[in-house]
Design goal:
With 419 residues, this protein is mainly alpha-helical. It has helices at residues 60-68, 130-138, 164-178, 193-209, 214-228, 238-253, 260-266, 273-286, 296-306, 311-326, 335-351, 358-364, 368-383, 392-396, and strands at residues 52-53, 96-99, 107-110. The chain has 14 helices and three strands. α6 (238-253) crosses α8 (273-286) and α10 (311-326) crosses α13 (368-383). Mean pLDDT is 78; it is low at 4-10, 18-25, 29-54, 71-128 and 131-144. InterPro entries: Cyclin, Cyclin-like_dom, Cyclin-like_sf, Cyclin_A/B-like, Cyclin_C-dom, Cyclin_N, Cyclins_cyclin-box.
Length: 419
């Protein structure tokens, strides 16, 4: 089939196939239309001025950088450059192209003389004085900020770095609901705070024997206190309430939950399976099935991360705060304050001096002065941990598994610190 006359190529002139455009060895060079005006032709650098297209705005910082990189060159008396063959004696002026429109044909060339002592004349650039130079230098300064503690977990989806601050902001708003009245025992007629301490000290040993998660222990104590604050319990049912609270905490936190028979066995068969299930229904109805409350454990994890804690500081912090679980008087402190004070007390114990960083203060929202009252009580508990009858926490942290943390020296100097 022949091509129509309108599409026939009659005169190719100097046209070449696409494969022959500057990609065949020995192909003759072709004229570049840009070289006619915007750029110098080949071999004409010695007799033509170099023209550059200004691609960035002429800011004061950019002009200052140009002036700092300038080199002196010699200039003739008649306004022309001296061409004596010595290239090192001068550098040709670099003209700038100031585009008046998007077309290259409408560009104007401006010669910039770096050797001149006068101010640099550029469009839209004001004369710079000393204050301008200082302003340029100040632009490079970086303000000191507190580093983020979540950078290392940016690629960990379980760390939920994107909204972890929102989570802990919600914890702070709701932690009041997890607190109970510090004198709720006055409403109980058959039990007292000493019986509560005996129960929790025993549950800490049960928790250690069953190798349960740390979250389970803190939630167990929280369930017990919230239940006793709303429901009167007789003395012989207090242990039943304790083991049932641990059963509920295991169902909420653990992957592998202990069976009811195990809890009955650990209670020396003092209760039956039916009694445990009846107590379970009573507790969840009294608490309105609300088990999702922030305990000191969730704040411990966040504050330990802010403190850049190692294994030794972490163990000592948990040892101190578990001592507080047994003490009824510590119910007057919020969970977040207990966590921050435990870490602060542990740091003081390990370092031998008061230590609380700005990062810890920022993420805990507690200053050192706000922690001193709670911290001094913790030092007293630490000092007396191995004494008396309730030594379950001390025995637990005296094992090799917990690094013999209970043998660490308490920060006694905090007892003499004034508020």
């Amino acid at each position: 089939m022949t091509r129509p006359a309108s599409f026939r190529v009659t005169d190719t002139g100097n046209r070449r196939a696409l494969r022959d455009i500057r990609n065949v060895v020995g192909a003759p060079p072709y004229a570049c239309p840009i070289g006619k005006r915007g750029f110098p032709d080949k071999g004409s650098l010695d007799d033509k001025k170099l023209t550059l297209v200004a691609r960035r705005p002429a800011t004061r910082k950019f002009v200052a950088s140009l002036a700092s990189k300038s080199q002196p060159y010699q200039q003739g008396t008649n306004g022309q450059h001296q061409e004596d063959g010595s290239q090192s004696q001068y550098n040709p002026p670099v003209p700038l192209v100031v585009p008046k429109s998007s077309c290259l044909d409408s560009c104007t060339t401006i010669d910039v003389d770096y050797n001149s002592s006068n101010d640099i004349a550029l469009p839209m650039v004001e004369e710079m004085d000393d204050s301008d130079l200082k302003e340029v230098a100040m632009e490079d300064l970086v303000t000191e900020t507190i580093p983020s503690i979540d950078i290392c977990d940016s690629n960990n989806p379980l760390a939920v770095v994107e909204y972890v601050e929102d989570i802990y902001s919600f914890y702070r708003q709701t932690e009041v609901t997890s607190c109970v009245s510090p004198d709720y025992m006055s409403q109980q007629f058959d039990i007292n705070e000493k019986m509560r301490a005996i129960l929790i000290d025993w549950l800490i040993e049960v928790h250690y024997k069953f190798e349960l998660m740390e979250e389970t222990l803190f939630l167990t104590v929280n369930i017990i206190d919230r239940f006793l604050a709303r429901q009167t319990v007789v003395r012989k049912k207090l242990q039943l309430a304790g083991v049932t609270a641990m059963l509920l905490a295991c169902k909420y936190e653990e992957v592998s939950v202990p069976v009811v028979e195990d809890l009955i066995l650990i209670s020396d068969r003092a209760y039956t399976r039916e009694e445990v299930l009846e107590m379970e229904k009573l507790i969840v109805n009294t608490l309105q099935f609300n088990m999702s409350l922030p305990t000191p454990y969730v704040f411990m994890r966040r504050f330990l991360k802010a403190a850049e804690a190692d294994g030794k500081l972490e163990l000592l912090s948990f040892f101190i705060i578990e001592l507080c679980l047994v003490e009824y008087k510590m119910l007057k402190f919020r969970p977040s304050l207990l966590a921050a004070a435990a870490i602060y007390t542990a740091q003081c114990s390990l370092r031998g001096l008061k230590y609380w960083t700005k990062t810890s203060e920022l993420h805990s929202n507690y200053s050192e002065d706000q922690l001193l009252e709670c911290s001094r009580l913790m030092v007293d508990f630490h000092q007396k941990a191995g004494l008396g009858k309730l030594t379950g926490v001390h025995r637990k942290y005296s094992t090799f598994k917990y690094g013999c943390t209970a043998k660490s020296e308490p920060a006694l100097f905090l007892l003499n610190t004034t508020l």
